[in-house]
Write a structure and sequence with these properties.
This protein is α/β, with parallel strands linked by helices. It contains eight helices and 21 strands.
């Protein structure tokens, strides 16, 4: 039975909630992600317009940069996760979506996934969410001809458990595009519910009661159905993996996708032993599972020997609190690589925790963190082993301090693309001072990216 529906409602995005990257700078109106708000301005013409949304990269060249290959990817990425960039868009009126119109004005074909969320709508009291996001379309990326295109993906038909939404996420991969993908507007069409009727939400009384397990029980307890193990009758005498050296079994298991490790742990006692060992999880890539991670699930992470972790894209829209992120980082003393790109739960206290708890850190990515507020990076001077620092698209203060770069003299890769840094004195140009300090103290610097660095 479909939800009780009212009239069809069409609307353009009214607010940009979050985004991964943009071509324009923080203090500009050209080629920035906020240009996707409101009705289209290109009037149905193919054009390279500064009033459109443009992401930072296109094609494969970005992945071939020496700075992006200085460190190998963390963990394994599932084949179904193709996303490189994203935007979260909010609409005035919550609807049951039936159509989404994406106005692609230049180099179309980069869209790979559309998700909808019931965040921001009325939540029934006394219930907890089973899942805050649902994928309603996935495909691509595809290389298309350069022509104006209004892409209308086919969405699933309305059902009894359809989600009423006013928040959607579009994810993109521009690796097949010959130039920058440009978007002019996004419009959503859907039914509103009848007056006096509450919208239908995807919820359960028990958190994650029937959701597919994403990661092992021992790793993130909040993502499990229950702590009881399913018992299978297994003849260990026919387990030929037991004849292999244990190091080989560990190596084989390292290629297993994170979402499949719990299922494999139920196959035999050997796999159970390997996959229950915390030393097996020296590196974790949780970026593909951003929509599943909450404060509770993240705090269940108790792997003391973890050395590399990717938490990019997690915590947006207040799903993960800054307090939870602080507690997690404070319990990972052996970290050498930490990626927090586009993580809104990172604030000044989290930065301080990184400096206090992770003395072995060599690689730190803080791209687009800080919730739009200026971060003080002085605590990072305690990270004497730091070789890679990415502070792109954030606001920082006192970056032109001599002590900062003197303490980080081992830097090899420094990226501050789109960073806004106010100089300590009006008499100095922040970008010029920063480059002079890098030249003075960081003699081993291999790569520098300060494109669109601004001091305004």
């Amino acid at each position: 039975m479909a939800p009780t529906l009212d009239n069809t409602h069409l609307q353009y995005a009214c607010r940009l909630r979050s985004f991964s990257s943009q071509y324009g700078s923080i203090d500009s109106n050209s080629y920035v992600t906020s240009n996707v708000q409101g009705p289209p301005s290109s009037l149905g013409k193919l054009c390279d317009s500064p009033m459109s949304l443009v992401f930072r990269t296109y094609g494969p060249w970005w992945d071939k940069l020496p700075s992006n290959n200085a460190y190998s990817p963390i963990g394994s990425t599932p084949k179904w996760f193709k996303s490189v960039d994203f935007i979260d868009l909010e609409f005035d009126v919550a609807v049951y979506p039936t159509k989404v119109y994406i106005y692609e004005t230049f180099c179309p074909g980069a869209l790979v996934r559309i998700l909808i969320s019931d965040l921001g709508t009325e939540i029934p009291q006394g219930t907890e969410h089973l899942s805050r996001w649902r994928t309603v379309w996935k495909g691509g990326p595809k290389a298309k001809t350069d022509k104006y295109n209004i892409f209308i993906p086919k969405l699933p038909k309305l059902k009894k458990r359809s989600i009423g939404t006013k928040l959607i996420r579009l994810e993109f991969n521009s690796s097949l595009c010959e130039y920058y993908t440009e978007l002019d507007a996004v419009r959503i069409e859907g039914y509103t519910w009848s007056k006096g009727k509450k919208p239908t939400f995807l919820y359960k009384k028990r958190v994650f009661e029937s959701v597919k397990v994403e990661v092992p029980t021992e790793l993130l307890e909040g993502l499990t159905i229950e702590n009881k193990r399913v018992k299978y009758e297994v003849d260990e005498s026919k387990n030929y993996f037991a004849l292999l050296p244990l190091e080989v079994v560990y190596k084989i298991c390292s290629y297993i996708p994170l979402a499949s490790t719990r299922s494999l742990s139920l196959v035999s006692s050997l796999f159970n032993s390997v996959l229950s060992d915390s030393t097996f999880y020296k590196e974790l890539n949780l970026k593909p599972y951003w929509k599943t991670l909450t404060s509770d699930t993240l705090e269940a992470l108790k792997v003391d020997c973890l050395e590399r972790i990717d938490l990019s894209w997690t915590g947006n829209n207040r799903i993960i609190s800054s307090e939870s992120m602080y507690r997690v980082v404070s319990n990972l003393p052996l970290l050498t690589e930490l990626r927090l790109s586009n993580c809104q739960s990172v604030d000044q206290r989290v930065v301080q925790a990184i400096a206090d708890t992770c003395p072995l850190l060599k690689m730190l990515d803080l791209t687009h963190c800080g919730k739009g507020e200026a971060l003080v990076l002085d605590p990072l001077t305690a990270l004497s082993h730091l070789e890679y620092l990415n502070i792109s698209d954030i606001k920082v203060s006192l970056l032109d301090d001599d002590l900062f770069f003197k303490s980080l003299s081992g830097l090899k890769w420094f990226t501050a693309s789109g960073t806004c840094c106010k100089p300590s004195s009006d008499e100095f140009n922040a970008a010029k001072v920063v480059m002079n300090l890098l030249a003075k103290h960081c003699k081993g610097l291999c790569g520098l990216n300060m494109w669109r660095f601004t001091d305004k």
